[in-house]
Amino acid sequence: MSTGGGYGDADKRQKILDSAFAVFTKKGYQQTKVDEVAQLAGIGKGTVYLYFPSKEELLREMLKAMIKKNLSELKKRMSEEEHPLAKLKVMYATHASLLQENPSLAQLHIHDFAFVNEAFRAWLEQEKADFMAYIARIVEAGIKTEEFRPVNPNLAAALIISCLSVFLPPYGSDTFSVDDVLDILHYGLCQSLPPRP
Amino acid sequence: MSTGGGYGDADKRQKILDSAFAVFTKKGYQQTKVDEVAQLAGIGKGTVYLYFPSKEELLREMLKAMIKKNLSELKKRMSEEEHPLAKLKVMYATHASLLQENPSLAQLHIHDFAFVNEAFRAWLEQEKADFMAYIARIVEAGIKTEEFRPVNPNLAAALIISCLSVFLPPYGSDTFSVDDVLDILHYGLCQSLPPRP
Amino acid sequence: MSTGGGYGDADKRQKILDSAFAVFTKKGYQQTKVDEVAQLAGIGKGTVYLYFPSKEELLREMLKAMIKKNLSELKKRMSEEEHPLAKLKVMYATHASLLQENPSLAQLHIHDFAFVNEAFRAWLEQEKADFMAYIARIVEAGIKTEEFRPVNPNLAAALIISCLSVFLPPYGSDTFSVDDVLDILHYGLCQSLPPRP
Amino acid sequence: MSTGGGYGDADKRQKILDSAFAVFTKKGYQQTKVDEVAQLAGIGKGTVYLYFPSKEELLREMLKAMIKKNLSELKKRMSEEEHPLAKLKVMYATHASLLQENPSLAQLHIHDFAFVNEAFRAWLEQEKADFMAYIARIVEAGIKTEEFRPVNPNLAAALIISCLSVFLPPYGSDTFSVDDVLDILHYGLCQSLPPRP
DNA sequence: CATGAATGAGTATTCATTCAT
DNA sequence: CATGAATGAATACTCATTCAT
Questions:
Q1: Which of A18, A39, A96, D189 has its CA 20 to 30 A from that of A102?
Q2: Per-residue pLDDT tens for B154-194?
Q3: pTM of this prediction?
Q4: pLDDT at D142 exceeding the cut of 60
Q5: Phi, psi for residue B6 in degrees, rounded to 5
Q6: Which residues bind DNA (chains A, B, C, D) (predicted)?
């Protein structure tokens, strides 16, 4: 039966991760008590330790899960578009809508969680680097089709990713429209044409 | 007398703030021990409490001092330029050079420090809002002189500020040049001209 | 199971109260370390805080428990007597024997414990007032049966209670006999008869 | 000159003792800060240590001074009376009036101050013993003149001293009259005559 | 498997005392 | 003599983790 063996486990583990996300994003690491996570998950405190060896590891697993899930959603929707410009647009739109659907996500950016250990930091930087490379490849494709100017693809990727933060507090996700952001990103601030070297 | 007369107090307070900056940025709030700050300042632990009522308040005062100092330096240099484009350029250049001179500054962006109280959070958002308004006014000036396209000045300001983060880890301040960043910010990613509505 | 089932909690709480009584009466509040109370109770320091929210509250609870227990013992034995004189006699005898059985009780009168909060002070004064009223009613009964002279019952009660202190240090409970004390209390110091107004 | 040498010292020492009395009786030992005593005396904190080697010693000196002063006043007035009954009456009257003039005195009885060291405790018990002996001699004199019954003079003295506490809180010094107290002390509670052995 | 009672390491803060001025 | 800035010892309390049931 589906309720018999390993299923219950995965369900409970997921329930713990969900509670952990809720509490960690609301209170930050130090203010989060394992008790509270357990209670929110409707289980005993000791049970948390059957699934995660420590509070730190629980945080790391939760962060990994959230980041993976969101990046994967982002990439999935982007992959459904072919055109570089369309990919960027769907990325921004997806990012904005994910934040709007789940405002707690914004806390992941605000709370540090930086004390997580070196291994996690490395994993996180790798994920960022991978994602930046992914965006850089899109930029390169755009440059190749001459839609984009011959900019440094890595820098462009870094800027594209940085600009996602305009949808985070304190600006708020309601303030700016995706199209307006893309307008500036695509055509720049200046009236004039770029200098010809 | 030592150096001036009555200066001792302010000197010692500043010395404590400096030590606090060094230790807080290196270790984060929880891992920072008041003892360590005191030792680095070359004073006794109790002395810290003659100048600051608590470890939390010490952090807040240190953050305020650093933010004020850096924003003030930024604005001072920007005010020496008249042209909007020149102002932005000097802002990016100053930001990059401040980070290069003092890499610990980058930690201010990374560490959590989220427990800072509501009063501090309010102060910080006000500072951010003020700075964004300051940038927005520069953009407006650029629009008026028709150097800039008629974009939303607040959005432009938010993007300009967001893009400063490309000089922070994990990208690193060595990776990208100020001119390259400004090139993309000014002329956008696209080869084509913006759509005419 | 240990002894009963669910009794463990109350047992441990009582064990902590007993240890607290021993240490607080021996050392006073400030010199008492929570660690020491815990060790004497044979438990960990943290466990004390599962039963009492603070060291102060532990003291208050201990004091309340001791006072209640002793007053209750006093009243119980007094209620078994009918005659006012017999009641007073059993009160003095019980008081003296309680102090002899447990000399630490005397410390409750000697130690400061002054920081006890307003709520406790109010409770304590109420207990004292209740007990004084109880004694005053006994005096009134004695006056009605004309065993006692028509004295102010409240004053008589206050004096009767005050005189209990001759069994406390530094006089010591061995020095004076209950009968001798009662003799003076009943018939006064004077040879002559009281003045007739 | 009178202001030159030792006079200023004695004045300041006394001023410190007065402040110490005020603060210690109001707050108890632990809650009293040396700073506060110094400020009330209008001097610097360090100056206290020119006159008293420690906070504890300051408390002891203050207590000694107050006790000596009050006992001496008591004895002085009692010595002006010849008759045992008159001596007791003036003792009670003086005690009640001293408490009324300076309610803080009552705190000396309420606050423990028992942690003061062994030497002080010994001194205090000696003073008490001396005073009890003094009262006992008065009782003996009364017995000799057959005004008093042949009671144990030490017990009588202990009871006489114990009964002084009816003028202390929580009973309050306004509640009971000296004459009423003496009436009970002299003629006892009972209507009947004491048993003849 | 699940629980939650028990544990004890770890740290900010106070304030009596000192001593350079 | 007088001061008060500086010191640092001393301690209650929290909460992640364990393990007997």
A1: A39
A2: 999 999 999 999 998 777 667 899 999 999 999 999 988 77
A3: 0.85
A4: yes
A5: 80, -10
A6: 33-52
Please list the alpha-helical segments (H only) found in chain D: 6-31, 34-41, 45-51, 55-79, 84-101, 104-110, 118-144, 153-163, 178-187
CATH level 3 topology of B1-52? Arc Repressor Mutant, subunit A (1.10.10)
Diameter of chain C by CA atoms?
72
* C-alpha to C-alpha distance for C191 and D187, rounded to whole angstroms: 8
Domain spanning D54-187: which superfamily? Tetracycline Repressor, domain 2 (1.10.357.10)
Residues 6+ apart with CB under 8 A from D55: D32, D34
Footprint of strand F on the protein (CB under 7 A): A 32-35, 45-46, 49, 54-56; B 8-9, 12, 38, 43-47, 49-50; C 32-35, 45-46, 49, 53-56; D 8-9, 12, 43-47, 49-50
Q: Choose the closest CB to D152 out of C180, C185, C191.
A: C180
Q: Is the pLDDT of residue C89 over 80?
A: yes
Domains C1-52 and C55-187 share a fold: no
C148: left (phi over 0), alpha (psi -120 to 50) or beta: beta
Report yes or no: C196 at the D interface, CB cutoff 8 Å. no
Higher pLDDT, C104 or C159: C159
Closest chain B residue to A112 measured between Cα atoms?
Answer: B112
D91, amino acid identity: M
Residue A170, preceding peptide bond in cis (omega within 30° of 0): yes
- The confidence band for C90, taking pLDDT boundaries of 50, 70 and 90, is very high
Q: Is B197 on the interface with A (CB under 8 A)?
A: no
